[in-house]
């Protein structure tokens, strides 16, 4: 394919196959004055690489296995995104686009010689700062591409890699979405006797907000039209399932939605940093859209200190974290979150084209390049209850043991030959405990960590959700982007979610030492973005503009994941409220069906012990159970300021035989309108009791 054809067809955006030209390796020292913003570059044809005086412009040592072909021209690195090239003409372009075009012109002729490049003046604008920081992204992409190419050449691998995903056919995406939401009965009535499924769908639909119901209706209508074109079986009309908007049951009152929206869309004051989790995010977004028609969102990445200091509005009934609910309630959560996430994107007119994961050939055991679930299965046989792969835990702990003050940690790659040798050694001796960790250098360990992420057969963010993560950048506000990420984190498979949490916690600890290692939030984000979003077998053709947009967009997603991790790994209150409503609706339907008087009396008798707590509470008391300990129960008076943490403290003070620490215990809310929930220490017991008076209160050792 000639150069003109390549530019017409775009580039393949992947770390393993690319028809875009690689950025040349740097051979030029550069002088940067942060005070004046002046960035001067001099031509240098020496074979030795030198590092920039500025920490963000550090050039990695050339990898032994990634040497260019002898016939190719070894070009100096363009140290600034705004460097001018004599062969580049045309209208003024953004720095990174200009950088890429100049690079490709330089590569177009193997015999061409670069003329002396003039010094480039860099303004003090935020845009220029972003472009300079994004240079680390392109260095990381180059390192990934050259490293993979070097390995393929060394192994003599000429077989094309399998594609790990495919685009669903017409109608498949809507059908898969409805099935995942547990609503298959809406389009498939082949089993009219499946009454349990009908009741479940009915209870689920009764709790939806207007925007959530509209999201389901859109997918169902689209699927119906597709099925009719294909002359398939009769599908129930969507109008038979959803009532008109004025009759639709909406658990969130209109006044509450409007009230919260006034708070959300007011002037950019202190209120903009508060996240309202009591009202559905999609309902808030609808109100925002109505009040901000025609406004354009800013797509640039702000500096670290410009990110809003978002915080959750304090809820007296307690914050619910991932892992606090029972598995049965978590299934309900994920169904609701899928619908809510889709509704949120619908408010912005964003259509998510979900990819379908394809089963590929991969190793069944080992450390690198095996499915995450397989790796956890083999780890759990050694250490039961393992949630994060042991190899990842050990790599992180080794890097931290050696110290996080190493300059350029995560940014500067290790030597390719050493990293490859260490990888083989780990495969052979890691589980035997014979691997020599003391010999592993910091940058080599960081490269092993990034390599482990990249070589997962499917991306850590999952094939199905990857496009949705990328589309988050299209949402109009940072608040909506954060809300979408919260929902996407909840939708991730549990092994992926736990592993991602371990990574972002580690990245935060690296950033906390930025005064020593020079790795700010932006630096870590741009370096890690290619490793999280580029994976084997994934091929996406993109223009130069799309490539730059992908780079800044994915870096922004990683940045938000790191910065707001404490908020993202929580379950919004409105979702928990919908779960409670669904449980109550299911219980109501079950009780209604039990029409036999004798059985009804038996149920009433069975529930008397459960109502003993409310009898105590008439006098302002609740009874707390502790079946795992010698002190089986205790009565506590409900006061306005009594919190769950106070309950645990009183229990420990009364039972001296308990050897566990307070942070190893949890007060659970069990029964009533929730299956099981581990309470946040700041939960106000009187407020929660009023929300769920039929619940039992049990102290247990927490399993995290």
Automatic annotation (TrEMBL):
Keyword check for Metal-binding: no
The answer to whether the entry has keyword tRNA processing is no
Q: Where is this region: Disordered?
A: 1-122, 144-179, 227-272
Naturally occurring in which organism (per UniProt): Knipowitschia caucasica
Domain Rho-GAP residue range list:
370-569
Bias type Polar residues, positions: 1-11, 86-112, 251-270
A single GO BP term for this record reads: regulation of small GTPase mediated signal transduction
Q: What protein does this entry describe?
A: Rho-GAP domain-containing protein
Briefly state the protein's biological role.
Answer: GTPase activator for the Rho-type GTPases by converting them to an inactive GDP-bound state.
Q: Name one Pfam family in it.
A: RhoGAP
**Which SUPFAM superfamilies does the UniProt record give?**
GTPase activation domain, GAP (SSF48350)
């Amino acid at each position: 394919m000639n150069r003109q054809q390549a530019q017409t067809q775009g580039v393949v955006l992947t770390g393993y196959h690319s028809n875009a030209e690689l950025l040349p390796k740097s051979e030029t020292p550069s002088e940067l004055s942060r005070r004046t913003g002046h960035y001067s570059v001099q031509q240098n044809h020496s074979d030795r690489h030198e590092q920039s005086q500025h920490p963000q412009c550090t050039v990695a040592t050339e990898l032994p296995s990634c040497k260019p072909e002898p016939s190719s021209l070894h070009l100096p690195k363009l140290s600034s995104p705004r460097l001018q090239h004599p062969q580049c003409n045309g209208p003024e372009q953004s720095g990174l686009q200009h950088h890429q075009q100049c690079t490709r012109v330089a590569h177009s002729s193997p015999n061409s010689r670069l003329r002396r490049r003039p010094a480039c003046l860099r303004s003090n604008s935020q845009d220029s700062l972003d472009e300079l920081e994004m240079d680390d992204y392109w260095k990381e992409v180059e390192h990934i591409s050259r490293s993979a190419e070097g390995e393929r050449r060394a192994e003599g691998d000429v077989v094309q890699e399998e594609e790990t995903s495919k685009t669903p056919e017409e109608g498949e995406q809507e059908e898969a979405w409805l099935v995942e939401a547990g609503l298959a009965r809406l389009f498939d009535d082949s089993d009219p006797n499946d009454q349990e499924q009908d009741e479940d769908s009915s209870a689920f639909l009764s709790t939806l907000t207007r925007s959530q119901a509209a999201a389901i209706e859109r997918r169902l209508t689209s699927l119906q039209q597709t099925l009719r074109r294909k002359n398939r079986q009769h599908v129930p009309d969507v109008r038979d399932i959803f009532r008109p908007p004025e009759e639709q049951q909406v658990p969130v009152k209109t006044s509450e939605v409007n009230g919260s929206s006034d708070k959300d869309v007011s002037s950019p004051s202190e209120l903009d940093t508060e996240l309202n989790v009591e009202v559905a995010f999609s309902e808030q977004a609808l109100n925002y859209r109505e009040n901000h028609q025609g406004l354009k969102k800013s797509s640039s990445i702000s500096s670290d200190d410009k990110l809003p200091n978002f915080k959750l509005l304090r809820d007296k009934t307690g914050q619910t974290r991932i892992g606090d609910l029972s598995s049965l309630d978590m299934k309900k959560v994920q169904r609701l979150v899928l619908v809510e996430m889709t509704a949120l994107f619908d408010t912005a007119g964003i259509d998510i084209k979900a990819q379908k994961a394809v089963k590929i050939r991969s190793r069944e055991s080992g450390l690198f390049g095996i499915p995450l679930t397989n790796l956890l299965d083999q780890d759990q046989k050694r250490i039961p209850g393992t949630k994060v792969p042991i190899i990842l835990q050990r790599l992180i702990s080794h890097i931290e043991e050696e110290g996080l003050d190493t300059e350029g940690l995560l940014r500067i790659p290790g030597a390719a030959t050493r990293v490859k040798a260490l990888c083989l050694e780990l495969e052979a001796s890691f589980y035997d405990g014979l691997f020599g960790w003391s010999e592993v250098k910091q940058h080599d360990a960081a490269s092993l960590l990034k390599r482990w992420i990249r070589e997962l057969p499917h991306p850590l963010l999952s094939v199905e959700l990857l496009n949705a993560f990328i589309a988050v950048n299209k949402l109009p506000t940072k608040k909506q982007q954060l809300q979408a990420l919260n929902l996407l984190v909840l939708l991730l498979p549990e092994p992926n979610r736990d592993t991602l949490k371990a990574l972002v916690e580690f990245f935060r600890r690296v950033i906390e030492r930025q005064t020593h290692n020079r790795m700010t939030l932006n630096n870590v984000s741009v370096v890690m973005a290619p490793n999280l979003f580029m994976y084997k077998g994934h091929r996406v053709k993109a223009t130069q503009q799309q490539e730059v947009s992908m780079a800044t967009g994915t870096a922004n997603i990683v940045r938000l994941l790191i910065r707001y991790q404490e908020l993202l790994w929580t379950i919004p209150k409105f979702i928990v409220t919908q779960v409670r409503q669904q449980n109550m609706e299911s219980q109501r339907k079950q009780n209604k069906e039990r029409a036999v008087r004798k059985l009804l009396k038996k149920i009433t008798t069975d529930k008397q012990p459960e109502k003993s707590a409310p009898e105590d509470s008439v006098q302002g008391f609740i009874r707390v159970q502790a079946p795992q300990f010698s002190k089986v129960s205790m009565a506590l008076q409900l006061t306005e300021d009594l919190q769950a943490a106070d309950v645990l403290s009183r229990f420990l003070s009364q039972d001296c035989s308990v050897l566990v620490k307070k942070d190893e215990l949890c007060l659970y809310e069990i029964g009533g309108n929730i299956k099981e929930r581990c309470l946040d220490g700041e939960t106000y017991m009187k407020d929660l009791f009023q929300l769920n008076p039929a619940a039992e209160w049990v102290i247990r050792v927490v399993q995290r």
